[in-house]
């Protein structure tokens, strides 16, 4: 493990890197590059480096972590005509992105406005292709 400030960073054999609260042990954030992590994370120049058995070395911000999520609202997904959206969601959730529906997305964005933490939301089912029959009737 690596220790810095209020955080303890540790990776595991499932391929997840955790940032834990140094005092309580509570999970503050996680990152899942996808393969087993056998090495200890290393902090240098404001970045947290960790390698895993895919042969890559990942560099992450060490203090607060990037708040990440994937928007996935089942009501919207039913209207989606793109079949790869399930693979997109699975890929991102396997890498530590929590799945948000519309109400959870609103809370997530409100929290990011309040805490000003760096964040990203992937709209996993956001590609929309209107039905050609509907498009021709709108003219």
SSE layout:
Blueprint: E1 2-4, E2 7-11, E3 17-21, E4 27-31, E5 42-44, E6 47-51, E7 57-61, E8 67-71, H1 74-79, H2 85-93, E9 99-100, H3 102-115, E10 119-123, H4 132-138
Parallel strand pairs: 8-9, 8-10
Antiparallel strand pairs: 1-2, 2-3, 3-4, 5-6, 6-7
Which properties best describe this structure?
10 strands, alpha+beta, three-stranded antiparallel beta sheet, globular, 139 residues, single chain
Number of helices in the DSSP assignment: 4
Low-confidence stretches: 126-131, 134-139
Question: How are the strands of the largest sheet arranged?
Answer: 1-2-3-4
How many individual β-strands?
A: 10
Whole-Å distance between the termini? 62 Å
Computed CA radius of gyration, to the nearest angstrom: 18 Å
Task: Assign an overall shape.
Answer: globular
Residue share in helices? 25-40%
Mean pLDDT rating: 75
Biggest β-sheet, characterized? Answer: 4 strands, antiparallel
Explain this structure to me?
Helices cover 26% and strands 31% of the residues. The protein has 4 helices and 10 strands, in the order ββββββββααβαβα. It is globular and about 40 Å long. The model is unreliable at 126-131 and 134-139 (pLDDT under 50). β3 (17-21) and β4 form a beta hairpin. By secondary structure, it is an alpha+beta fold. The longest helix has 14 residues, at 102-115. The protein starts with a strand and ends with a helix. The strands form 3 sheets. A 4-stranded antiparallel β-sheet has the order 1-2-3-4, with no helix packed on it. The protein has a 3-stranded antiparallel β-sheet with strand order 5-6-7, with no helix packed on it. Strands 9-8-10 form a 3-stranded parallel β-sheet.
């Amino acid at each position: 493990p690596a220790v810095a400030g209020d955080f303890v960073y540790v990776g595991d054999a499932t391929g997840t890197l955790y940032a834990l609260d140094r005092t309580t042990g509570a999970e503050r954030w996680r990152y899942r590059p996808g393969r087993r992590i056998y090495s200890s994370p290393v902090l240098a120049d404001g970045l947290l480096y960790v390698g895993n058995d895919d042969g890559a070395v990942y560099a992450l911000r060490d203090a607060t972590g990037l708040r990440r999520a994937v928007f996935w609202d089942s009501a919207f997904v039913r209207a989606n005509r793109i079949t790869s959206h399930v693979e997109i969601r699975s890929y991102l959730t396997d890498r530590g992105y929590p799945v948000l529906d519309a109400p959870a997305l609103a809370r997530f964005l409100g929290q990011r406005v309040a805490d000003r933490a760096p964040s990203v939301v992937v709209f996993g089912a956001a590609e929309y292709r209107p039905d050609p029959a509907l498009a021709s009737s709108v003219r």
